[in-house]
Amino acid sequence: MTDQQNTAASEEETAPQFSLQRIYVRDLSFEAPKSPAIFRQQWEPAVSLDLNTRQKQLEGDFFEVVLTLSVTVKNGEEVAFIAEVQQAGIFLIKNLDAGSMSHTLGAFCPNILFPYARETLDSLVTRGSFPALMLAPVNFDALYAQELQRMQESGEAPTVQ
Description:
By secondary structure, the chain is α+β, with helices and mostly antiparallel strands. The chain has helices spanning 2-14, 98-127, 140-154, and strands spanning 17-31, 45-57, 62-75, 78-94. It has one domain (15-153): SecB-like (Bacterial Protein-export protein SecB, Roll), CATH 3.10.420.10. It contains three helices and four strands, in the order αββββαα. It is found in: Cytoplasm.
């Protein structure tokens, strides 16, 4: 009976674990350099979106993942607004092999953070009196695979800071 309990306890200690500890806005900015004149023009926006992720190991098995969405919207040739949000999360991640850990930090965690970042960005833009952006979903698994391929071709190795 004791051997069974020890085996079960040992399996629990080595089983992969993942839990979300906290989601928060790390940084937020909004600039409308041509207001109020931009509001008097015909609205024909051109949206440019840049996204980036970074991660770092905190103490022990805790990791911070930061998803940055940067949007520049031009109306004609003029910049209507620039908005950026850094949506972050703290995750407890234990007992994953290196490949699984890299995928979890590079794709799975950003997938969790994206809806929060998108909502924060929409709210920020509408508070600036512009129409909501309604950003399309992002396939972080595909982006992660592209980045892995790029790194393999250049001889880089994935790292967690």
